[in-house]
């Protein structure tokens, strides 16, 4: 069976950006900022994207293009079958993320209608608690997943690439317009102060909490540690510069994440909401309350949640493609059969998260702070120490050689390895404390 490829280079870049630009940027990023010190988290996050995220994208890119396979099959194609468990960690991580990600996307669909009708105006918390779990949440989880399955069934060129070429520019334009609108709100000064004023004191005092959250968010928002970039790079030709592509993807993704903060914090401060309260649901409760009170709130609410739904879809199709590609590559399944079958399994796995908020939060915490760093840590070690020569050779394709390639390898061996490893250790320690296995240090 001939392997599919991207029709254009911009198609690959937009697909990778579309994967990165999703709920991680617009939903998860703001409440991570709110829960982890405001601008202190922003400083750490931006540093993590630059120093860890971009080099880590290249780690996945070289594996994917070199092997031309899915995250599990890649290790066999590279002649390193004994390391296939690393790919399995990535695929399982993506599977768990997709199972609850589509539940959140279902909430977004419900909020589009709620914004248009004003259904949650004046009862934001009660509305969210009503729709977040239960039968309706399961149905909307299924609806969103069905749309995702439909696009992935069409393949790389006719499905994913065509979809992201329309979706990603639309997301950027809509967010830019909303950011301009946010400038007119009463809370813009306080919101920007909270979001943008450097807070090094909080950063110094709480870095052990902020670092794992920032690294986890950087990995989540760049779709790293779950095999997406391995899978997407496996469809890339050898004439493309992976170094240039990785920088472009990280830059566009970070700009959109940053824009989401410029929108949401002025909105929250306009209604005197406290960023960080309420966990995952805070986003919907706080923003919903703001749309009830700010000028043109009904229209802005519809536009905002439509933007969020499109962003969520662009990410969901990439995660689903990771799992589908495994069954196509390794077992020769027809794309439509593999996509439908995986979609059904993801739907079933997501039902517990749709029925119980506690289960949902466990899914999010375990994947964001434990499985993503674990998968990335293992991939980094593999590229840096098991296949370093092959990795450097792959990085040189599509561009002229320079010392930058060797610098990247040693940066991955040192800074990225230590940072992701430390994040993993801190996350494991945090879980141990939370579940009473260890006492919290004074």
From TrEMBL:
It is found in: Membrane. GO terms for cellular component: membrane. Signal peptide: none annotated. Pfam families: SNF. InterPro entries: Na/ntran_symport, SNS_sf, YocR/YhdH-like. Coiled coil: none annotated. This is SNF family transport protein. It comes from Natronomonas pharaonis (strain ATCC 35678 / DSM 2160 / CIP 103997 / JCM 8858 / NBRC 14720 / NCIMB 2260 / Gabara) (Halobacterium pharaonis). The lineage of its organism: Archaea, Methanobacteriati, Methanobacteriota, Stenosarchaea group, Halobacteria.
């Amino acid at each position: 069976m001939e392997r599919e490829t991207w029709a254009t280079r911009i198609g690959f870049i937009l697909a990778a950006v579309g994967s990165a630009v999703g709920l991680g940027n617009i939903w998860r990023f703001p409440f991570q900022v709110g829960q982890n010190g405001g601008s202190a988290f922003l400083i750490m996050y931006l540093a993590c994207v630059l120093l860890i995220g971009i080099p880590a994208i290249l780690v996945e890119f070289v594996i994917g293009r070199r092997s031309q396979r899915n995250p599990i099959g890649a290790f066999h194609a590279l002649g390193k079958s004994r390391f296939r468990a690393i790919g399995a960690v990535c695929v399982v991580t993506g599977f768990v993320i997709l199972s609850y990600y589509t539940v959140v996307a279902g909430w977004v669909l419900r909020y589009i209608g709620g914004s248009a009708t004003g259904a949650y105006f004046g009862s934001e918390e009660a509305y969210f608690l009503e729709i977040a779990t239960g039968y309706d949440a399961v149905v909307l989880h299924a609806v969103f997943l069905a749309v995702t399955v439909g696009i992935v069934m069409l393949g790389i060129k006719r499905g994913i690439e065509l979809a992201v070429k329309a979706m990603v520019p639309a997301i950027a334009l809509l967010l830019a317009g909303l950011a301009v609108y946010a400038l007119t709100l009463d809370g813009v000064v306080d919101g920007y102060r909270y979001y943008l004023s450097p807070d090094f004191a909080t950063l110094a005092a709480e870095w052990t909490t902020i670092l794992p959250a920032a690294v986890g968010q950087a990995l989540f928002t760049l779709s790293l540690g779950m095999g997406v970039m391995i899978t997407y790079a496996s469809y890339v030709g050898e004439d493309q510069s992976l170094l240039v592509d990785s920088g472009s993807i990280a830059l566009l993704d970070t700009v959109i994440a940053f824009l989401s903060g410029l929108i949401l914090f002025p909105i929250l401060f306009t209604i005197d909401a406290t960023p960080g309260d309420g966990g995952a649901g805070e986003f919907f409760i706080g923003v919903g309350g703001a749309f009830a009170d700010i000028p043109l709130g009904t229209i802005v609410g519809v536009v905002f949640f439509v933007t969020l739904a499109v962003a969520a879809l662009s990410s969901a199709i990439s995660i689903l493609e990771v799992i589908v590609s495994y069954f196509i590559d390794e077992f020769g399944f027809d794309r439509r059969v593999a996509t439908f079958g995986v979609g059904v399994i993801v739907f079933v796995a997501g039902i517990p998260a749709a029925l119980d908020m506690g289960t949902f939060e466990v899914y999010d915490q375990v994947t964001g702070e434990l499985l993503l760093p674990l998968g990335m840590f293992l991939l980094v070690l593999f590229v840096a120490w098991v296949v370093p020569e092959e990795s450097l050779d792959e990085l040189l394709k599509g561009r002229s050689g320079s010392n930058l390639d060797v610098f990247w390898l040693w940066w991955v061996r040192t800074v990225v390895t230590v940072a992701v490893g430390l994040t993993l250790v801190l996350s494991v320690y945090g879980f141990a404390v939370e579940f009473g296995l260890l006492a919290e240090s004074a």
